[in-house]
Write a structure and sequence with these properties.
The chain has 166 residues and is an alpha+beta fold. The chain has six helices and eight strands, in the order ββββαβααβββααα. It is 42% helix and 19% strand. Strands 4-3-2-1-8 form a five-stranded antiparallel β-sheet, with helices on one face.
Length: 166
């Protein structure tokens, strides 16, 4: 689904872009670990074998040290999620078999960082105030463009407008 965001715990993951957020803050995750996380969060609670991960991320014919690469990806995901191997909250290892994503995953349409940043609406409100609002809106139509942009940046599809009057 285009534009879907997967939520688990305090995290939001955009599988399309590979971006991971916690509390609105972006957490760095390289391309291959993001691809592994995408596969794991697509099938939470299910075992993903090492072979399934190899085929999906590296292709059927690998010319890299696959075990090392997969172990690197799993370590990076655990670091990004603050997870542990001894008491995992997100990622369980099934030795010699594969991995299981433990947390419940909910899917929601929208961009992962959209609803968390207050800087964009504050800046937009400041700009609207500087423009003189209604007077300029009537004359140039800029007010409507900025309000539409503000809605697009801060709201997910289908959310009601908090600025709409009664």
């Amino acid at each position: 689904m285009a534009g879907e965001v997967r939520r688990f715990g305090d995290f939001q993951f955009d599988p399309r872009t590979g971006e991971l957020f916690r509390g609105g803050e972006k957490i760095e995750l390289q391309n291959q670990p993001a691809r592994v996380l995408e596969l794991l969060t697509r099938r939470p609670g299910e075992l993903l074998t090492r072979e399934e991960l190899r085929d999906a991320v590296w292709g059927g014919v690998t010319h890299v040290d696959f075990d090392r690469s997969l172990n690197f990806c799993i370590r990076r995901i655990r670091m990004a999620l603050g997870d542990s191997t001894r008491q995992p909250a997100y990622l369980e290892t099934l030795p010699r078999r594969g991995y299981r994503f433990l947390a419940a995953v909910t899917v929601r349409a929208g961009a992962a960082g959209k609803s968390r940043s207050l800087l964009v609406p504050a800046a937009a409100a400041f700009v609207l105030g500087l423009m003189g609002g209604a007077a300029l809106a009537e004359e140039h139509g800029l007010h409507r463009l900025i309000v539409d942009w503000l809605h697009d940046v801060t709201l997910s599809s289908g959310e009601p407008c908090p600025w709409a009057s009664g």
